[in-house]
Amino acid sequence: MAISAELEAKILRYHHVEKWRVGTIARQLNVHHSVVTRVLTQAGIPKAQFTTRESIVAPFMGFIIETLEKYPSLTASRLYDMVRQRGYKGGVDHFRYVISLKRPRPYAEAYLRLRTLPGEQAQVDWGHFGHLEIGNAKRPLMAFVMVLSYSRKIFLQFYLDARMANFLRGHEAAFNAWHGVPRVLLYDNLKSAVLERRGDAVRFNPVLLEFAAHYRFEPRPVAVARGNEKGRVERSIRYVRDNFFAAREWKNIEDLNHQAIAWCDRQTADRLCPEDKTQTVGDVFKQEQSTLIRLPDNPYPTHDREEVRIGKTPYARFDLNDYSVPHTHVRCTVTVCATLSNVSILDGANIIATHKRSFDKGKQIEDESHLQTLAAIKKQSRQHRGQDRLTHAAPDSFTLLIQAAERGYKIGSIVSQLLRLLDDYGASELNMAVKMALSKGAPHPNAVRISLEKQREARQVPPPIGIDLPDDKRVRELIIHPHSLESYDQLHTHLENKKDDN
């Protein structure tokens, strides 16, 4: 920065006459301190030498460095407590700053580029793509992604959860799409793959091991905190998120999966293969396909399987919904086997119910035959209860019912009519009327009704008022005591006397 001769003269005068320091001159003249230093140096005045005092942390620096070399992740707060016990009097903020400068830094690790042989390896992972609302249910939308490490061929399929059944369905669909199986499948530490891990000791999910034995591939988990070992599938999930799922319109999950298959077969296959830029992924996959393991003749059962206890109502609770079963299986334990489209309920090896699967929440999926059979049983039970009540109140009615059945009459209708007559006339009168009907060879409610009417007329009492009472025994057997009507007679006499007086 060029300055005027006048400003240069001021700087020299303030330095020699007023004895101002460099910083004071710079602040008062509104120039940078380097300008003042340059002017003084050009004038033959040596640059001021500043003496630095020893830091308050310096006596403890050897202990701090030794401790950090032994425990590089030890926190500054813990180190501060340790040096305070050893006589350090400084504040914690400056101490934290010193520790940040002295803490050993980890070396940046360099990675080898991993190369695989054709058909040797594939990488598997789940990707979360938000939630999907189906009726009252809010279900996670999960993307199953498998990518061949050599050709970078991608398989993509969406499911409504990441449970074991869908995990296996994704594998099976990928193998069928590629018409073969890779020799090794790499997994992150998913619970569907790895149940427990202690260092290099791994306990695999037994279902996955059984599935792997069926398709003859080796399941292999990547090392802990080694994302580079399965970087191909992680990059593929980002590729799916940015190039397939973003701004895509779809009607339902079936439509989304249909579009995903088309995308894998076209767009992803037309991109250049990272291993050989002269060929597309689709071309390299055609070469790799012949090296894959041949599919077994029979598929592995990938359905959901769950033991369910049936309560007092004939429904099996499965995946947030209730599915009807025959009433004969209440208070029993059954097995629910479900695909993505159907739910089958088994008692041992016998299928007792089949329903279309619902992904809603709180729905009752019913088979009409189950309900109709239960309703018929309940109706028959009500009829039996009515017969028991009738025969206990009027014992001769049992003989009437037998003779009515021999003549082909509808027993249910006869029982209902006799029960109404029982409510209207009482047990003793009904039993007497039944005897009279039997003596006349007429085992029918009409004959009983005629006998009851004759008995009523003979006693010169009004006909009974029909009242529909509930089936509750406590209500039907309730005894009501009538109130005395003498007060009404007295009131009538008083009104008559008053009329005569007028």
Number of helices: 19
Amino- and carboxy-terminal Cα gap: 135 Å
Query: Helix content range of the residues, please?
Result: 40-55%
Reading off the top of the CATH hierarchy, the class of the largest domain is best stated as Alpha Beta
Write the CATH fold name of the largest domain.
Nucleotidyltransferase, domain 5
Low-confidence stretches: none
Strand order of the largest sheet: 3-2-1-4-7
Using the CA coordinates, give the radius of gyration: 47 Å
Supply the key terms:
alpha+beta; Nucleotidyltransferase, domain 5; elongated; 5 domains; five-stranded mixed β-sheet; 18% strand; single chain; 502 residues; four-stranded antiparallel β-sheet
Question: Your description of this structure?
Answer:
- The protein has 502 residues and is an alpha+beta fold.
- It has five domains: 5-42; 58-102, no CATH class; 121-289, Ribonuclease H-like superfamily/Ribonuclease H (Nucleotidyltransferase, domain 5, 2-Layer Sandwich); 304-366, no CATH class; 386-473, no CATH class.
- It has 19 helices and 16 strands.
- It has helices spanning 5-16, 22-29, 33-42, 61-70, 76-85, 92-102, 164-178, 206-215, 231-245, 253-265, 267-270, 281-289, 368-393, 397-406, 411-425, 427-439, 445-459, 473-476, 486-501, and strands at residues 121-134, 137-148, 154-159, 184-187, 194-198, 201-204, 218-221, 272-273, 276-280, 304-309, 315-318, 321-324, 333-338, 342-347, 350-356, 364-365.
- A hairpin with a 2-residue loop joins strand 5 (194-198) and strand 6.
- Helix 13 (368-393) crosses helix 15 (411-425), helix 15 packs across helix 16 and helix 15 (411-425) packs parallel to helix 17 (445-459).
- The longest helix has 26 residues, at 368-393.
- It is elongated and about 150 Å long.
- The mean pLDDT is 85.
